UniProtKB/TrEMBL annotation:
Residues covered by the PTS EIIA type-2 domain: 561-704
Annotated ranges, domain PTS EIIB type-2: 417-507
Protein name per the record: Transcriptional antiterminator
GO biological process: phosphoenolpyruvate-dependent sugar phosphotransferase system; regulation of DNA-templated transcription
Superkingdom of origin organism: Bacteria
Gene Ontology MF: a single term: protein-N(PI)-phosphohistidine-sugar phosphotransferase activity
Length: 708
């Protein structure tokens, strides 16, 4: 038998038309590659036992189910013929099912019944009960085991229902791998398995009527929670497990607008299911109606007047967050409205000690660290004013609203580039070109598309920042970039360079940036982060320093700072590539720019990585790390009397050696960028190769720097 993970692997493979790698499968089912390989053995056995061929596995290609469409259909039928229990349940799935049956039984359950339901031994069930007991304590419930009598849960009915409601969400996820699609009908389908005698169409209709009466729209989560709680209430009433509320709580709930709606729902339930719904149960329905999350309200002005005190508190919270983050939230009106709609039911829930669990808590706490901290402090105002306890899960929901407002605001301050498109006809290829450009560059604002003849009328327009043309243009007053109509990789690189150097990215500051947290989020998926705050600080510092390199006023002056004429050697005789590296390093070594160990570290890197420094045909650029013995950033250039081989497969022999030593990463990046810009042009390489004196090379580099 296959457990749920192996069934998911089989179904995933059945959906593929080509080979899939083990990496892809491991990511899909969230286990290690070794576990996937073990799973393949059991899947092969299952396929053979059911008269199918084994998985086809080919090294460096991957794995595939190489069967006809009819055979694949038969596999799907066999997998789907089984009901929920016929495959081998994982330990987590088994414990959830055992727990549900214990919680929702009218009396005690014996271990043999539970073992038969889940196809395991009584010993396994007994071991499961230890973990189940620990889980129940989180709801102030006790698991009672009495020999010869059975096992049952002891505790308040309200706690029973809370535990079952949380469990139902987990069971829905287990039974439906597409749970995140947030389909109410799909959620109902899952609930029917656990409450077969409940008519969910009736309950759904009651909730929709409640929305209409209250002039609101429940969120998916709010609607799903109401479905669960109403179904659970009906089921528990059938089992004579009525809820009990204190008189004080009940009187508070009876004063709310939602109580009259809950009363109608209770009367309809009584009539439809032929059961009596007690007054305390009506109060409990009211509690869930007032605390259900909302997605919208029909009349915002009227809804905002319901709690003017909350509006004042939200203003204070926004101010507290702004002070903490040292920002100004420009779209605070929209944020205030959204927070009000969120906090109204939240306060109702928390006044009755009914907090929600936020499934994104850890992600939000990591990704929006500073915002989360600021919202945590701001939530103290809520606690004080409404006498409630706001836990981290609720703070995470508040953080989502502030985070969205801040990100929206950040994206709006990005500088757009106003673009004029010029095509040969002005019509034909222009639409395709426009679509391509906007798909690659979201901050382009294309103001018009014109033909060659119409360019002149835009020459004096202040609206145009850049002209992108498919044909060469003469004597234009605006910067022009010529591209192919279909936009190739070279075009993308040129346009990206223009954006980088002309201002779109010059003013980005990464302090408290969500981009930094996005980077940390990616890093955390591949390794364990020991010091989150330290990593955030280091990445922020790195990005801000790199950012400075692209600000024209802060760029290093390449010629004056790191290259002098006496660092250029001409037509030097070298017998080997080792000899060439030693001789090219000599000027920097003599001036004290580098230590002898820097040269040795270059040889170590070559021994480890091969001739990595041969960057272009005929050009070698030996260099090591910034901590490998550099005292001062510098460059030396040496042309060879006769080219020598560096054992590179495509770029040998080498006629010019450019020896690089950078004291820090930023100088390293800047120097490499400048040199590669020059060496990317074949004419420049040829000029360096044919140069007869240092001045020729020095002047070439100085000239090229002036054009950048």
């Amino acid at each position: 038998m296959l457990d749920s993970r192996k069934i998911n692997i089989v179904k995933f493979l059945l959906q593929q038309d080509d080979f899939v790698t083990i990496d892809q499968i491991a990511q899909k089912v969230k286990v290690s590659k070794r576990t996937v390989r073990y799973d393949f053995k059991e899947i092969d056995n299952w396929l053979i036992n059911n008269n199918f061929s084994k998985l086809l596995r080919i090294p460096r290609k991957g794995v595939i189910i190489d069967l006809s469409d009819d055979e694949k259909d038969h596999i799907i039928q066999k997998l789907n013929q089984s009901n929920y229990y016929t495959y081998m349940l994982s330990p987590k799935e088994r414990r959830e099912i055992v727990l549900f049956h214990i919680l929702n039984e009218e009396g005690p359950t014996n271990l043999l019944e539970l073992a038969e339901k889940t196809f395991v031994s009584k010993t396994t069930i007994s071991n499961d009960l230890d973990e189940i007991s620990s889980w129940l304590k989180g709801f102030n419930l006790n698991l009672v085991r009495r020999k010869g009598y059975g096992v049952y849960v002891d505790g308040p009915e309200e706690n029973h229902r809370e535990a079952i409601a949380i469990l139902l969400k987990e069971l829905a996820k287990t039974n439906n791998k597409n749970y995140n699609e947030e389909s109410i009908d799909r959620y109902i389908f899952n609930l029917k398995e656990w409450f077969p005698r409940i008519d969910f169409d009736f309950i759904k209709n009651e909730i929709e009527n409640a929305q209409d009466h209250l002039g609101i729209k429940f969120s998916y989560e709010g609607f799903a929670n109401l479905l669960s709680h109403l179904a659970l209430a009906i089921e528990r009433i059938f089992l004579h497990k009525d809820i009990e509320m204190s008189k004080e709580q009940l009187h508070r709930l009876m004063a709310k607008e939602e109580f009259s709606i809950a009363k109608i729902i209770g009367e309809n339930i009584s009539e439809f299911f032929k059961i009596k719904v007690p007054l305390d149960e009506i109060g409990y329905i009211t509690l869930h109606l007032t605390g259900a999350k909302l997605s919208k309200v029909n009349n915002q002005e009227e809804y905002l007047r319901k709690n003017t005190k909350l509006l004042v508190i939200i203003d204070q919270m926004i101010k507290r967050v702004e002070e903490s983050l040292q920002i100004f939230i420009s779209n605070s009106t929209s944020l205030k409205r959204d927070l009000y709609i969120h906090l109204m039911p939240t306060i109702h829930r928390l006044q009755f000690n009914k907090p929600l669990q936020n499934p994104l808590l850890n992600e939000i706490r990591t990704k929006y660290k500073d915002v989360f901290k600021a919202c945590y402090e701001a939530s103290r105002i809520l606690e004080y004013e409404f006498n409630i306890k706001v836990n981290e899960h609720e703070v995470a929901y508040i953080t989502m609203h502030f985070g969205a407002a801040i990100e929206t605001q950040t994206s709006k301050v990005h500088k757009y580039t106003n673009v004029l498109l010029v095509c040969a006809s002005g019509i034909g290829t222009s639409r395709l070109l426009r679509a391509k450009l906007l798909s690659y560059f979201k901050f382009f604002n294309i103001i018009d598309t014109v033909s060659y003849q119409d360019v002149g009328r835009y020459m004096d327009s202040s609206e145009v920042d850049l002209i992108i043309s498919t044909i060469p243009l003469k004597e234009t007053k605006k910067p022009v970039i010529v591209v192919t109509p279909l936009i190739n990789q070279r075009d993308i690189e040129i346009l990206s360079s223009y954006l980088m150097y002309k201002g779109n990215y010059n003013n980005i500051h990464y302090d408290k940036s969500t981009f930094v947290m996005d980077m940390i989020d990616v890093i955390s998926k591949h390794c364990k982060i020991e010091n989150l705050e330290g990593l955030q600080t280091d990445i922020t510092s790195l990005l801000n320093n790199i950012n400075k390199l692209y600000r024209p006023q802060n760029r290093l002056i390449f010629i004056n700072n790191i290259l002098s004429k006496d660092n250029i050697q001409m037509k030097v005789k070298c017998k080997t590539w080792e000899d060439a590296i030693y001789k090219s390093a000599a000027p920097l070594l003599e001036k004290g720019y580098i230590a002898p160990r820097y040269i040795e570290n270059i040889f170590k890197k070559i021994e480890k990585y091969g001739p990595y420094m041969v960057i272009a045909p005929g050009i070698a650029m030996p260099h090591a790390g910034v901590k490998d013995g550099v005292y001062k950033t510098g460059v030396s250039i040496m042309t060879l009397d006769k080219p020598v081989k560096f054992n590179h497969t495509t770029n040998d022999p080498v006629h010019t050696v450019i020896f690089l030593a950078a004291k820090d990463n930023y100088a390293h990046i800047e120097t490499l960028t400048h040199l590669l810009d020059i060496l990317s042009v074949k004419e420049n390489i040829e000029k360096i190769k044919l140069a007869k004196d240092p001045k020729t090379i020095f002047d070439l580099l100085k000239e090229k720097e002036g054009t950048q």
